[in-house]
């Protein structure tokens, strides 16, 4: 939330709110008296805030296990849009992914006034992607997920049956709908990269279709200038495009493109608004990670708003602003004051430590072969074939150690190297012990 009077050229906000953790903010709408605003998020509950950003209440959520949406007390899926009635300060309109539009009374957050279910070809849940009031607060228009636009007039005894129902208006989701002040023109913006202008007196075919307006965001809208001679909308960035985010302005009478204003080279323009009193155009830009707001103004025609704070330089730091940065000692963070770990925890920790618990090494598992554990004798086909082929030889296990040493007796006699020379005088002829088997026989 920003306050133009209290800002300098740094343009810092005075309050930040997170209406519903983890859910994006889909729509904001001021009450007719501008003392409260409606915040619609991706959750199923809309919230009302006052001008200072304090929560006044949130609407109730419905029971998701009830099949008929008429019988639920509130929305059961994420909201897609919402608007405050421009004339009645107690009535609010919301649309949701659960396929319903609901009217609420601000004085009672627990109950809704009306549930409107759009007309569908087959009975199923198709999300309502956008909704809007007309200037008098007498009619409601909604863009439905099946590509249709449906319009209801609020009168005594009215129900869910739409007064105007136009099928297949767009090939993809309708992201924004907007009435003109005189109630004759309707704008519809869609993700199929088009902006369509409709005459409400004959809604069979659009008056004009403006194409090549890329749109990748479910919140992109279209709006009128204060005198309603111009219609404008934002465009999204395309991967292979080099245009950046643009604001495209069209003439309402001639139904042609007047100008294209580049807003951001790297980000898409999502929502736009032309404020009638201060005569400034606001455009919000962003991608999936970050966003910002751009304000277009004319120093000679615009009033207040951004003009108030753009020229106001940030206050220079004076000598009196010096702050001592003291070192804060927190005694409870010192090891001396820490709680001792419990005995049970310590015991469990020691038991897991193999050195402290004197845990013996685990035996080597698996079948052994020839006194060696972990090698298989013939269980593997490869080993068996190698053994049969004579490539694996059992040398040292089946051999008598005495015979293995005597192999080298002749070589040692011819060329004595290490031990034999030491005994050359005392024992010129080495005497080898006879084999055990011979002794046993004797």
TrEMBL record:
Q: Does the keyword Repeat apply?
A: yes
| InterPro entries reported for this sequence | WD40/YVTN_repeat-like_dom_sf (IPR015943), WD40_PAC1 (IPR020472), WD40_repeat_CS (IPR019775), WD40_repeat_dom_sf (IPR036322), WD40_rpt (IPR001680), WD_repeat_GAD-1 (IPR051858)
Residue ranges for the region (Disordered) are: 341-371, 419-442
Compositional bias annotation for Basic and acidic residues = 348-361
Q: Which Pfam families match?
A: WD40 (PF00400)
Can the keyword Cell division be found in this entry's annotation? no
SUPFAM superfamilies for the chain: WD40 repeat-like (SSF50978)
Q: Which PANTHER family match?
A: GASTRULATION DEFECTIVE PROTEIN 1-RELATED, WD REPEAT-CONTAINING PROTEIN 70
Q: What name is this protein filed under?
A: Transducin/WD40 repeat-like superfamily protein
